[in-house]
Amino acid sequence: xxxxxxxxxxxxxxxxxxxxxxxPSSWQSRGFDKPRSHATRWLLLSVAAAVxxxxxxxxxxxxxxxxxxxxxxxxxxxxxxxxxxxxxQDCGIASTDIYIPPIPFHATTKKHSLYCPNRARLLxxxxxxxxxxxxxxxxxxxxxxxxxSTSEICMILDRFxxxxxxxxxxxxxxxxxxxxxxRENIALGGLRQWEMKESEREACRCDNQLTRPECLAYSVxxxxxxxxxxxxSRQSSPYFCDRTPHVFIPIDRSPxxxxxxxxxxxxxxxEPDSYKPxxxxxxxxxxxxxxxxxxxxxxxxxxxxxDISQRNxxxxxxxxxxxxxxxxxxxxxxxxxxxxxxxTIEMAKEAEARxxxxxxxxNFTLQAGSxxxxxxxxxxxxxxxxMVINWLSRLEST
Length: 398
Prior knowledge:
Largest sheet: 5 strands, parallel
Mean pLDDT: 84
């Protein structure tokens, strides 16, 4: 069963009165009468009339979509966004198989009101949802996230100087799916296919690009390599848009190797005067055998580097996947669902203490099919990549 993802922040309290401004009841308690002059009455009547006029004036706009974040709004119905993707037929995946948009229960309910109104609610909903059966589409808790078209993803990415994925193999798979979406290639979009033989390309199509070790060796690690080499390939698969660089930096311990610090710093200092943020998606779990001190040390390590740069660097901490039913018995105690759930909760608390956003993946993967009990195929990682894109869409652009 799925578990409720906890809220760690209490809602802000609204003050009942302003300092220095007394209520009419306080006047009476101190021996004063309420002001009752004709001028005061006319002033109150004028204010009341103005308020009523504004309510009537704005009533005609009540049906228009209202969003608290600067994200693209689309009123169109969901379609199979993979229809035109390379390998769509061969891999047998439709976006409608892995994502179901919210459905209004009443005719008067506006569809846009069913999507999460802000980033905090979005992350809570995506972390705390569940499935109505094994391998069925995932439903977030309370409100919904969006499935963006490729052109909308490009609009979102344009608001950033760079996007950095920083983590172990769990996050590496999400970055592969991120590339699949941007290259519109389900068959080989996560791979450096220009380096592969024809027989390797054939063997690594679809889910195999994520599940076979010999295929993972060709995973795309940065957008620059695709831009530099793909055009010359006979199996060309360019990005739909390529204005915002993105990169995956592999880490499996803390502190990480110095050359990885250098790579991260080069991104942070590439355009020091730019107003655009650099978004960081950070995760570390199975590579460290769920070591809590290593994870918190990694958070501090990379946040410190970001702070030194004095750039706007929002962080998203991504929790681990749940263990699949094929997890080897020898790993159940150390990497089973009990250990993974406690790791998810404790690391979310640590991220919260450091003012980092948190996206839990435990509930999302709990009833999903896994090839080996640890890693998941395209039907899972494509949705995970879209969840990350939803987080990006809700970040301030300045």
